[in-house]
Amino acid sequence: MGEDDPRGPGAPRKLTPEVRAELLKVLAEGQYRKHACLIVGVSTQTLANEMKRDAEFKRAVCAAEMKATRTAVKTITKASKKDWKAALAFLGRKHPEWVARPRELPKVGGRDIKDVLAEMMLKLGVTSDVPEALKVPQASPDPPDEVLG
User: Fold this and answer.
1) Closest CA to 27 of 13, 42, 6
2) Residue 88 host element (H or E)
3) From CA 2, how far away is CA 104, in angstroms rounded?
4) Rounded-to-integer distance, Cα 90 and Cα 15, Å
């Protein structure tokens, strides 16, 4: 409640127009709210309170964050034209149900089903290795953070 605040006298506002502008700039660059607050010198509670008080400021914060998200998505989309792993990383996070990672095979009596099936195959006289279909697929490593933004 600073001098220009219609609510009366009190402590000056921490989120001055200049601090607000810098905060929105930092958020638009992709910083998390917590880090943006540290950069501009206000607490996350101050930001939360101001967003509750001022719907227009809240919309501006959300718009700045969305700008950073759009930039990241554009970067990944551009990278995916040259590297399929960028597209896979994007889809895996946006639609994880579409890009399922290989799962572990179930256990039977506390043992891997692969071992149980291999043992049964031996008992039946099948001496070849376990067929490829019964082998546990290896999960691919996560893409590097640079790809994910």
Assistant:
1) 42
2) helix 84-94
3) 61
4) 35
The pTM score is: 0.57
Strands (E), the chain: 107-108, 111-112
Do residues 65 and 97 both lie within one domain?
no
| Per-residue pLDDT at 39 | 96
**Which residue do the tokens 């309170």 mark?**
49
Average pLDDT across each block of 10 residues of the chain; the chain has 149 residues. List them in order.
Answer: 54 86 97 96 96 96 96 90 84 76 71 76 66 53 52
Q: Are 37 and 47 in contact (CB under 8 A)?
A: yes
Report how far residue 116's alpha carbon sits from residue 119's, in angstroms, rounded to the nearest whole number. 5
The sign of the CA dihedral 87, 89, 90, 95 is positive
Give the alpha-carbon dihedral of 17, 22, 27, 31, to 10 degrees: -140
Q: In the structure encoding, which two tokens stand for residue 73, read together?
A: 């998505």
Domain of residue 15, residue span: 1-82
Into how many domains does the chain fold?
Answer: 2
